[in-house]
Design a protein that fits this description.
72 residues; mainly alpha; 0% strand
């Protein structure tokens, strides 16, 4: 997973190195070049409580950590 990917040149450099893996990339950037072969899905930003819930599901070691410590 690549989180908050914004730099086009970094993505163009890294994507070929990560093939043939399936990769989830999150970004607020909306205009990616078609030739990069990305399947873009527009999503809404998660509410803070939902983002913490998802984070703790994906990284179980964080579930007992206070929310304030997850604010990075």
């Amino acid at each position: 997973m690549l989180d908050n990917a914004e730099d086009l040149h970094v993505m163009q450099d890294w994507l070929p190195k990560l093939q043939p893996a399936r990769l989830l990339v999150t970004s607020r950037r909306e205009n990616w070049p078609v030739d990069m072969g990305l399947k873009v899905k527009k999503l809404e930003v998660l509410a803070r409580s939902h983002s913490i819930e998802l984070l703790c599901k994906l990284a179980a070691r964080l579930k007992d950590m206070p929310d304030e410590q997850l604010d990075i």
